[in-house]
Amino acid sequence: MKQFFYKGRFIFFPLAFAACISALSFVVMQLWNHILPDVLHVATITFWQAMGIFILCKILFGFGGKGGPGNAPWARRRMMERCKNMSPEEREKFRTELENRMCGWGKRPFGRREGRFDDRFNTNTEKTSQQGDAPTV
């Protein structure tokens, strides 16, 4: 059964992708043809024009999400669990490695906010004062 799935996936996935695109294009065509001619007095469109509009919108406006897999709630929770057990040195090494991989993309113009990463993943809430006095909570 497993071999059949692995061999069949090269046929199934492209067909499933084409079916999804076709269904969404049909929905775009129906919405366009039933709403816009009455409201905006535009011409009706064909299936292929609807598919072109749909693909153009996906190219221009993105494919959903807010910037990738890191914004999924399950991915955020998994990353928080991984980073909870890191020492401050490991967190700093991880942060610099991540910034190097991203090539500075998405950096704020005023630099990164201090303590943002550390505060989120720090399990110890005690902070010591500058003079070395007793810890404050």
Series of H and E elements: HHHHH
- Whole-angstrom Rg: 25 Å
| Number of helical regions | 5
The stretches of 5 or more residues where confidence is low (pLDDT under 50) are: none
Distance between the termini: 59 Å
Strand % is: under 5%
Q: What oligomeric state is this? A: single chain
Mean of pLDDT: 76
Please tell me what the overall shape is: elongated
In short:
The protein has 137 residues and is mostly helical. 64% of the residues lie in helices and 0% in strands. α1 (2-40) packs across α2 (47-61).
Can you characterise this structure?
There is one protein chain. By secondary structure, this protein is mainly α. The protein folds into 2 domains: 2-63, no CATH class; 86-121, no CATH class. The chain is built from 5 helices and no strands. It has helices at 2-40, 47-61, 73-84, 88-102, 116-121. Helix 1 (2-40) packs across helix 2. The longest helix is centred in the N-terminal third of the chain and has 39 residues, at 2-40. The chain is elongated, with a radius of gyration of 25 Å. The model has no long low-confidence stretch (mean pLDDT 76).
